[in-house]
Amino acid sequence: MGLKRILPIFTLILLCFVSVSAFAHGVDDETQSFLSANKGLAFGPFLYIGAKHMITGYDHLLFLVGVIFFLYKTKEILVYVSLFTIGHSTTLLLGVMANINVNVFLIDAIIAFSIVYKGFDNLGGFKVFFGVQPNTKLAVLIFGLFHGFGLATKLQEFQFDKEGLFVNLLGFNLGVEIGQFLALGAVLLIIGVWRRYNSYIKFSNITNMLLMAAGFLLIGFQLTGYFTS
To answer: What is the pTM of this model?
Structure first.
């Protein structure tokens, strides 16, 4: 498979994440009805909803694409993804259980900024413009915390039945991890094929600039929502 086939496929996937912005970080009508009407323990449905949310969560996935783009060793990928998981799992549970709420547009704008940050970091922007290199692991953990608050804020739009809430949230969180695993598996498969060709390094700048462009687009989308809502 040559460059003419690989690059368009990879770019199309990135653009697809952005093109569904009106749906991906929202909740469809069927899910809304279930969340609003659910009473008591519902581990299975919450697990399914969590997985579906992550698979369609373009902002989370774009950030993770940036995180793993230059990671070649399986151990490194597991470390970084685990740090992200610890971050968003913590604030997801804490946000809902402690009823800590933030403006949905502002938190999503911060999540979008994390995409810009990672693309800029991958391009070596911090070293070039500021002469420093931030701790990449710490950055992934911190942004994971913000991503978790984004999920928690979305869930808090619904009036949950308190009975079985913690177990339901564990199901949702596990579903998010399953969805993340499936989505990243597909991305890693594509990247793994692309890395066999010299074009991977040659076009790495273009790919990360696309990530930054997508992040800026999402920031504008969220801030527009904030100022017009």
So the answer is: 0.83
